[in-house]
Design a protein that fits this description.
The chain is built from 17 helices and 16 strands. The chain is of the alpha/beta class. Helix 2 packs across helix 3, helix 5 runs parallel beside helix 6 and helix 7 crosses helix 10.
Length: 433
């Protein structure tokens, strides 16, 4: 089935179509595509011819490259036939049109109907797990890869965990990650684009759906791995630099958990446990973030509150969110690092259901880093994921499916390609406990 699908896929006019190219993330995805898709046939897509022409002019001027010959495809999430026509002409749809809860499913359905691979940068657990529940088996049957969370949520965390396990030489029981961002120079107001804010509003407003989805999606229980990785106190000091830290509210932990479940079910691998946290520069920053977070959580629970958050993002984010988004200079001044601590055993047991009688005796510290996490690194990772499907399908799970990045790309060269394009993956130390 998958050989037949790939043969059909190869005959198409285009390798990649970037859908939602006139949006904030879409524009930066187009910019990164100039380099990363240089030897491929790619196009941009959206609902407005004039806006897409403006994107090619704007991005072309910025990159000092003539993009006038890049094809434009007209497609609208409210017109399913247009989405089907778009997907039918390419091998991979790179979907930049969010919030995905509102606009993602029609694109997924169009890709399924036309046997077209699909990648996106969603960090919305309801969308990620809901689409896996609804379409994983259909994607396997069609022999196509549908991979979400291919941006900052959650390439660094998921592929970072894959990297840690590859370097461990033993069995990893637990992983804790701490994300740290550092801004060089003056911090700019409006550093978060409105689209990111809107996605968070819709995701958290409907988070109660996640439990219902998970009960259906994960009906089969995983083995009871021990010792249990306990959650740290809400406010605590991290192991990396002793920084004040809070639980990270993004999709990282759920994404890693889905990868581990997939590897257990397909390779009989003992699943590791993971907790994700975020570190701050000091208590004042923690207080500011906690204050905005508390207001956000209270307001997002009511229809009126959600409308106010969506209509007045700058006010309720203390200036951090804007419709214009951050400037290029501000984005390129932001560095990110994810620090990982993995604990486990040097020796391996015969089965993932077997239980170790001794506590973990080995620890490894690694890190993943880069620049401009929200948009630059996100767009690089997104395009590299699409490119990996086209170039390395033979190293991916053979049947296709709706997968996490770690499940899809663990045996490919994605990590090396990320390293060649601005990411760092490093082992900091390995020692016995």
């Amino acid at each position: 089935m998958i050989r037949k699908c790939n043969a059909m896929n190869m005959a198409r006019k285009l390798d990649v179509v970037i859908f939602g190219a006139s949006g904030f993330t879409g524009k930066y995805t187009v910019l990164e595509s100039i380099k990363l898709l240089a030897n491929m046939r790619w196009a941009i897509a959206g609902r407005s011819q004039s806006k897409l022409e403006e994107v090619l002019k704007e991005v072309g001027d910025k990159a000092k490259t003539d993009l006038s010959r890049v094809p434009i495809v007209l497609a609208d999430v409210n017109n399913q036939d247009s989405l089907i026509n778009m997907a039918r002409d390419c091998r991979v749809v790179v979907n930049c049109c969010g919030p995905y809860r509102l606009y993602g499913e029609p694109v997924v359905k169009a890709c399924l109907e036309t046997r077209t691979h699909h990648v996106d940068v969603s960090g919305e657990p309801q969308f990620l797990e809901g689409m896996q529940l609804k379409y994983h088996e259909a994607a396997k049957e069609k022999g196509i890869y549908m991979i979400s969370a291919c941006g900052f949520d959650s390439i660094p965390a998921d592929m970072g965990t894959v990297f840690l396990e590859q370097q461990f030489d033993g069995v990893v029981n637990s992983v804790e990650s701490y994300v740290v961002t550092k801004t060089q120079g003056r911090r700019e107001l409006g550093g978060i684009h409105y689209g990111t804010w809107a996605s968070a509003v819709h995701a958290i407003a409907n988070q109660d759906e996640v439990g219902h989805i998970r009960r259906k999606l994960f009906a089969k229980k995983l083995p009871d791995v021990k010792p249990k990785l306990r959650e740290r106190p809400t406010l605590h000091k991290s192991f990396n630099g002793n920084k004040w830290s809070l639980p990270f509210q993004g999709a990282d932990r759920s994404c890693v958990a889905r990868t581990q479940r997939f590897l257990y079910e397909t390779e009989n691998k003992r699943p590791l446990q993971m907790r994700a946290y975020i570190s701050f520069g000091g208590l004042l920053e923690v207080c500011a973030v906690s204050f905005v977070g508390a207001i956000f959580w209270l307001m997002v629970k009511t229809s009126l509150g959600r409308q106010m958050l969506l209509n007045y993002p700058r006010l309720f984010s203390l200036g951090m969110v804007s419709h214009e988004g951050p400037s290029d200079e501000a984005m390129n001044n932001v560095k990110f690092t994810l620090y990982f601590e993995g604990k486990g055993w040097e020796d391996k047991l015969a089965s993932p259901e077997d239980v170790y009688t001794n506590p973990p005796n080995k620890v490894i510290h690694t890190k993943v880093g880069g620049t401009n996490p929200g948009y630059g690194a996100t767009c690089v990772a997104l395009i590299l994921c699409a490119r990996t499907i086209l170039l390395e399908a033979e190293h991916m799970p053979g049947e296709g499916g709706y997968l996490t990045p770690g499940a899809a790309f663990a045996k490919t060269n994605l990590i090396n390609n990320l390293r060649e394009n601005g990411f760092t993956f490093e082992v900091l130390s390995t020692s016995k406990l």
